[in-house]
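Q: Could you fold this chain for me?
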Amino acid sequence: MNHQSPKTIIEAFERQVEKYPDKTAIIFLGTKITYAQLGEYVKRFAGGLYQTGVQEGEKMIIYIPNSPQWVIAWLGIQKTGGIAVPITPIYTSHDLQYIANDSGAETVICADTNYGYVQRAMGGAGIRRIIVTNVVDLLPWWKRAFGKAFDKIPSGKVSKDDKTYLFRNLINQTYAHALTTKPKEDGIAEILYTGGTTKFPKGVPITHDLFMESAEEQLRVSTPLFPLEENVILAGAPLFHILGQACELATLCFGGTLILQPKVNLDGMLETIQRFKAKTFVGVPALYRMILEHDRVDFYNLQSLQYCFCAGDVLPIEIGTRWYERYKKLIFQGYGATETCGGVTMCPVNVENPPKSMGLVVPSKKVKIINPDTLEAVPLGEPGELVVSSDRMVKAYWNKPEETAVSFIELEGRKWYRTGDIVSQDEKGYLYFVDRTVDTIKHKGYRVSASEIESVLQEHPAVIGACVVGVPDQDVGERIKAFVVLKEDIKGITGYDLIKWCRQKLASYKVPQYIEFRDMLPKSKVGKLLRRELRAEERKRHEE
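A: Sure. Below is the predicted structure, expressed as structure tokens.
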């Protein structure tokens, strides 16, 4: 990045508003919003936050699907000098309450369909205000009327009280408050929560300069195909996820156009690519597979796509091959993590990349491949655990000293993040994924904590022990399987009963697909659960 580049997210966005006022910034369900309009919405929303009593440095949860309101909320929070805490809209009140307490957030910006969850969470969290939106709030009146007439718009009941504010009201007013706050470049812009190896999600604080450096690096990979400001990105990844942020949302800091959909609808997605000539498509492997197997895929012309990017999990070779045979376009892969602010490796677009490779290490990152037990470097070509370092890197989890000590280590005078992924590197510098740590399951691009699911299962009054592993699956990466030991005197409990129990306490993507009952679970001499034995058993069964 050159020295003239803006160092904060809001500064970078406002520079594009000045530069391209009449250019389309966002397309949502066919409606276009220009940079000037988006800039005005952001200014009004930030002013509205002040009017509701929000203070500089306050943490605010964004709990809505991909939509213009999501973007306005995220940028508006930056403008107030606040810290955004984006979470998946499919979280339950249980997850929301935990994250509100862990982050210290006092404000929740939610969809009306999630309003009931927020109210339930308020009793056990320090939430002081709720800002509510309906997903179509920013669409023209006639589209809203049409959607309601045909019952196409999901909505929820909202109370009228002094803690609840309507998003639409905040952006429809001009506030006199002068916005003088300027976030610092090394100040925290947001806290993203990630799953992984522990029972509870961990908060990853991301600074403005880290976000800008990582996002520019990842977006610039496609510049041999088209300039940054001419990019038109169809967002196939959610905005609360680092993949959706660094490879989609960040285009608004560089003059590109972002196409959003509130949920995955294949026909809507494909029709939108065709109609608005999207140049970039971002998705996890499962999404590419869904498109290839969609029975109406041939009805759409996707030739405008120039850059197809895949991350979140390993892309099976057969999907890449089928995509190329159908569209004569390559799917370029990358590897990253929330803790590294996305991309650690990316495949360049102007060379032939080796099959199965995750790409080359991006300039801002340093990597080592180490023996996970001794922490010593392994010989070139040998598999080992990937550790990552950068000058602006995340150095600790939010409020989690024990987890920080495990995942962030000192080597040769530098701080390194332990990814927990086993990789190898060839002599040209390309990285290859080999295996995952046993405690993490990769399902539909999400990192799911095995111990979190085990903990929920063990809360069931009939369960004495549980062990959760990932079962290889070509459609979604891994499916979640739980091995359960019931108390001796228990009769009549079925796998369905336990899945129903999990649905009440876990986000839908964390719920096990399979339950197998056992008399006992494999344990080490010191009583540690041996997940790897069950995982190896499942892999063997899968290969037969």
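A (continued): The longest strand covers residues 414-425.
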